[in-house]
Specification:
The chain is of the alpha/beta class and 322 residues long. Helices cover 42% and strands 16% of the residues. The termini are far apart.
Length: 322
């Protein structure tokens, strides 16, 4: 399968490219930088990457690029994906998350390929906001109640994709992954931050792990399971449909920290940092992914214990590399 990935040089994009190549796909993609970071340098041998600012793409050039690549599957990952950063830069978040999505969908439409490529549009489970108890675990029928620029812009992009499926015939399926984590994730995200801080305390570079609210519960899926779900949707998802992706199990952040501390080679002190406490923090968000399981047979394979162990190993390697 010829695959085209936006945001291919990012955390999820790198794992997706690796999975697609393992499956024998031809892989090309774009990112704002147009190059793979050092941790993904091995992909440069097998995956073609080109520079493209999705929020400011030239429509004709973008359509020409799609026409040249002739993808059978387009995976749209490029986004400003950090909720905290979205509060600091709402305009930039909307420009990329909604404007960039419009630019991509328009480019695929204008490329005029036949058959039309399957587009796997990656949304987010946080679009559901703070669901009432009778909607947990959260199914696709739960009302969308986004509460920050990130989640609202992603919800709008989902609606745009459905509109262009209905009005323009684009072959779009929407994945709404809940929280995911794994090796190579940026410490801007909470599990990766905890792993990085534990590694730094082990190395004597910090005296304690600084935390925010550890009582929140999230549905964490290993990123390697997530990208496997994306490819299954490219193969067998129903056009115009939305699919939640998650384990269906909640993980309290306090328990994740305890697991990291249990893996540490020395005692780990913990202290609360008020700056890390979010002004809006949903207490519990767990997915109902039964629709995805029924449609494509996806099940999570990697246990949380392995995800956390692999993240800590990755964090230790980064600390050792300086």
């Amino acid at each position: 399968m010829r695959a085209f990935v936006t945001g291919i040089s990012g955390f999820v994009g790198g794992h997706l490219a690796e999975h697609l190549l393992e499956r024998g796909d031809q892989v090309a993609g774009v990112s704002a930088s147009g190059r793979f970071p050092a941790g993904l340098a091995h992909l440069a041998r097998s995956a073609r990457i080109e520079p493209l600012d999705l929020a400011d793409a030239d429509p004709g050039a973008f359509a020409d690029l799609i026409r040249r690549k002739r993808p059978e599957a387009v995976y749209h990952l490029a986004a400003q994906s950090n909720p905290r950063a979205s509060v600091d830069d709402p305009r930039g978040t909307w420009a990329l998350n909604l404007g960039g999505t419009l630019n991509l969908l328009s480019a695929v439409k204008d490329a005029g390929l036949s058959p039309t490529p399957r587009i796997v549009l990656v949304g987010s489970g946080v679009c559901y906001g703070d669901p009432p108890p009778d909607h947990i675990p959260v199914s696709e029928s739960c009302p969308l109640r986004p509460n920050d620029p990130y989640s609202s812009s992603k919800a709008a992009a989902d609606l745009l994709a459905i509109q262009m499926h209905l009005s323009d015939g684009l072959d779009v399926v929407i994945a709404r992954p809940f929280n995911h984590a794994g090796p190579r994730q940026s410490p801007r995200y909470v599990l990766a931050s905890l792993a990085a801080q534990v590694a730094e305390v082990e190395a004597g570079r910090k005296d304690a792990v600084e935390v925010g609210n550890l009582d929140v519960v999230r549905d964490y899926t290993d990123v390697r399971d997530v990208v496997r779900g994306y490819r299954l949707l490219a193969e067998a998802g129903t056009p115009g449909e939305v699919y939640n992706l998650g384990t269906g199990r909640g993980l309290k952040l306090a328990d994740a920290l305890d697991a990291f501390r249990g893996l540490a080679i020395r005692p780990i002190e913990v202290r609360v940092d008020p700056a890390r406490v979010r002004p809006v923090d949903l207490p519990r968000l767990v997915a109902d992914a039964s629709k995805l399981r029924a449609a494509v047979g996806w099940e999570p394979r990697i246990p949380t214990e392995r995800t956390l162990a692999d993240m800590l190993a990755d964090a230790r390697a980064r600390v050792a590399a300086g």
